[in-house]
Amino acid sequence: MTEPPALVVPPFPTPLRRKAGLLRRFVIGWGSWIHTLFEKSYRMKMGTVRFPLLRFFVINDLALARDVLEERHCPWPKHGLMTELLRPLMGESVFSANGAQWQAQRAMINPAFAQAGLGRAWPAMRAAAQDMAGNLRQAAARGPVDMEQAMTAVTADVIYRTLFSQSLPADAAETVFAAFDRYQRHAQRYAMLRLYRLPLMRRRQRLSQAAAAIRMLFAPLVDARMAARAHVDQPLPPADILDALLDARHPHSGAPFSREALLDQLGTIFLAGHETSASALAWASYLLAGDAGLQNRLAAQIAAVTGGSPLAADHLKALPELRHLFQEALRLYPPVSFLMREVVAPQIMRGKAMAPGDLAVVSPWLIQRNADNWACPHAFDPGRFARAENAGAAREAWLPFGKGSRVCIGQGFAMQEAMIVLATLLREFRLAPAAGSAPEPISRLTLRSRHGIHLRLTLR
What we know:
Keywords: Heme, Iron, Metal-binding, Monooxygenase, Oxidoreductase. 51% of the residues lie in helices and 9% in strands. The chain is an alpha+beta fold. The protein has a single domain (22-459), classed as CATH 1.10.630.10.
């Protein structure tokens, strides 16, 4: 009988032996949240972390996590610290709003997302993926490719086409990658300084500067579209998300979005529509690069399903192993590793007294790497999503898109986009890790690598 191949454990930070004290936690947390985790973090049902500003309650118990995310017994709004970190980029948008304001904004943007329906978005996704392949052929000829930058470019291009009906210029893609890298770095340091009640050292200004570089990419497009629509007597059906947002009206007052509110919503859609997908796709490409057999098998499946013709929507349904690969990448490297909610009423969970203003954390990173939920939780095993015994875990302990009313509205969009990009990548290239050390994941607003994810790409 042939022994099954040994599972590979891709890189993740070695947990601390014990919980760090305040000073050590500050030093480590200056760069990454996941590096502050200790061994028990990956086994416990609930833990407490105290900072000078507030207390964190880390909720890994699946039933309690579901109660929080689905708000089964009381509201669990986005915590003020998270909205504070994102306000320079997203303003008072649907991502950061709570209560009635959130409900009204969600009602206004839901019709806009009909413009990003999977059928409508398909041409934009396929065109962007084909442009990606051409760019990668040129980049690969020069040496190893940073897949984080490449995946940021393609996912930003997809959402830009969906928002504005035009492709994202190459120099703009570079601006997005560099600006959001700066934003993440300053946001992490801002958070640590706030938690320790220390002076912010101009971090607000630096966040605003990085955010402005991103928002300026689409502000001129908004102004031009608003000016053009002012001269149209008969309104036309919306052609893209920007048109749909311009048509949106408040459910009670009937007022449209103001220019600034529109930029806030676009900033949110643009960030949420590309950054998390770029993170997951970069890690998925790294996982593929370490498994030549899986690459070849997937490439053969794609060739058999497509018959060499251009990728079509129906083809994706016949590629479950490719979908499982991306699901496993999201399990091992969830782009948003910590979901922060605010305690609004005194309560007790697992014997711990929680007070209003405390911060409740549901962590996809920890829940998806807990041995109570998944066998060999740190190992790369995309086949786990095909096995019947994991159906419950896939439903309850896999939450890269969150759960409840705030579940990511773009989940279907992201899954389709990822499969198109990965299928295009596998049709064109063989992937292998570049010489040097493995990438090191770091967790700030999203999960990235400390120094990029560098791969060697060769043409098939």
